[in-house]
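Exam review. A common question shows you a sequence with its structure tokens and asks you to describe the fold in words. Practice with the pair below. Do the first one on your own.
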Amino acid sequence: MHAKPLPRLAAALAGIAATAVALAQSPIDPVLVENASVQIRRSDYERELERLPAELRAGFASNERRVSDLLRRLLIERTLAAQARAEKLPEKPEYAGRLAAETEKLIAQFKVAEVERNAGAEFDARRASYEVRARELYVADRSKYVTPEQVSASHILFETKTRSKEEAEKLAREALAKVKAGADFNKLAREVSEDRSAKANNGQLGWFTRAEMDPAFADAAFALKQSGDLAAPVLSSFGWHVIRLEGRRPQAQKPFEEVRDQLMAEQRERYVNDQREAHVAKLRNDPTIRAHPEAIEALLVRVDHDLIRRKVEELAPGAMGGPAK
């Protein structure tokens, strides 16, 4: 009477075991692309990304073409390497030395990376003390941490690419007269401005600093005092502008909390660099270093300039500036 449930129990246990095996074999490092001889896995792709500059790495995967090209290149490189190994090319004398030298360089880079990693960990372990230092740096040079003065402005542009400067200036003055007569500035900008963004933003440029704009444009915009003030038409490298001030923001001191991460990052980078340089300096100043002058001398090629001069004179008298014989 109690034997009948056993097959069901065995089946259930078998199902659990099969699920466990399937989970254990799940592709934690899946194959992305392969051919008859090699496979490129996700880990290969991620290692290759690490070789890219940080600014390129962040958005790399947003472009399908870039990812595809990288995987194709990796597949070709690995296939060529597999072919070379199959032909035992790394064992050939003319290649073995180069392989050993490149391996030494790579291993040296591993050591440098480890020194930097350890230095970063040391910095992080003492982060509290470095935050105190960050505050000291902030107080000592507060002027470095300010938001520059900003203005917000709208403009109407008449380009000088397809017309003379005089014609563009005339159009700008006509537009300014219309605004002074009561025309809606932003509506007019949408209708006649040759700034390509005007149809979307009605000529509104938003907030900007003096350094972000063409110097002539910036001088005119920052000279305006109150919202609604209009500048006389001004010529920039883009053409003639009519400018209206929308608002002003004075220069402002950034609070420490806003720049703390920047200061900490700068200190961390400096600490890591110093530790790396100190490690290399120890190697450079190692008292056990011993040069072998005779062997080094044998590497050098000594040029006998007098001999060269005599030979040239023999072949082409007067070529070296001396009297012809």
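Now try the second one, then compare your answer with the model answer below.
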Amino acid sequence: MIIKCNNLNIKQIADSGQTFRWYERKDHYVVVANHRAVSMTQLSDGIELDDENSIWKHYLDIDRDYNAIMTHYKGKDDFLDAAMDYGSGIRILNQDPFETIMTFIISANNNIKRITSSVLALSNNFGTYLKTIDGVDYYDFPTPEQLREVSVESFRNCGVGYRDKYLYGCVQDILNKKIDLEAIKSLSDIELRQALMRLKGIGEKVANCVILFAYARYEGFPVDTWIKKVLSEHYGIEKDHKIFVESYFKPYGGIAQQYLFFYGRR
């Protein structure tokens, strides 16, 4: 399947920090999502996938006009203009809520290499086999039910460190119906964030990642070390980040954050 889209750069998306299951190969990426594993190749005017399922268009947010969003912010400030030019191929992925919750709990105070390794270990040990591509077996991210009997120690053996108890507690909270990941889609942004923060291991930053990457709430603006540095050095904001970003970057704060994060790290 070929998807035509000008604002879609798979390397930029893979390096944007919103997903940890895009694996770079010699001339393509292997992407594991939507209970599938696909080979994705960059074209000059879009991408090619070895899978014809239409869900990939939703996953890649193809129907959203990112040119219009960049035009909305164009001229607001020089740094944001440069960030949008640099990362113009980034799109916000529509990801599975449970996987997003678990992977961003792992991401707390962590680096991308370790996060990717831990997510791979969880999938290979407890997930369902999907497909072999280029001689490598790929497994789905495990469901809450598949993780029901996984102990804190078993989580730790996947390299997650101190986050082991948070992952275990989060799985149990979801299995015990402390939160319904489908039902909370109807909540407002504030209510959704608050509901997620009732789960083990989820603070405001991780909750903002989840509402942005799994629930398409574009007011979600995760503030990590890199974004704090950007806000300090280029906007003069040392405190009250939340008040500033909610007013300055609305209504697509989460998308603006991705441009700033991607550019700021470099």
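Model answer, second protein: The beta strands are 2-4, 22-24, 29-33, 36-43, 46-49, 129-133, 136-139. The chain has 13 helices and seven strands. Full marks require stating both points clearly.
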